[in-house]
Design brief:
Length: 161
Amino acid sequence: MTEKRKDYISWDEYFMGVAMLSAMRSKDPGTQVGACIVSPANKILSMGYNGFPIGCSDDEFPWNREGEPLQNKYFYSTHSELNAILNYRGGSLEKCKIYVTLFPCNECAKAIIQSGITQIVYGCDKYADTPSVMASKKMLESAGVKVTEYQYTGRDLSIKV
């Protein structure tokens, strides 16, 4: 009898890989972020990436990070976590886990808490010292959301299409 293979990827590698693949859909020239929401039974429920709302042409709205408020992306773009939450049409997200490539901002933290998601696995925390992320961490801790940094394995995962 042949034994099963032992080099298969873990659930964390799988779901963070899906979040990373989702980030590749983002057309933002500066920052691409992806998210993947998973049920307690390890079923993918929804995915999202940062971009503009459906119906808002990404050719007509600005991608700039700087400039006047109406001339940069921040009033128009939706973050990956919120997109993943809004993309889910199946009911409750209570007790679910979200994998996200970048630590959630305060606005996304509010949506995560309100949606009932109880765990976050994040890939990068490069804005840790910003007021937005500091507020996010304070709210997530207060709400009892478990937050874990993804542990990169160094495994080379590639997809050829």
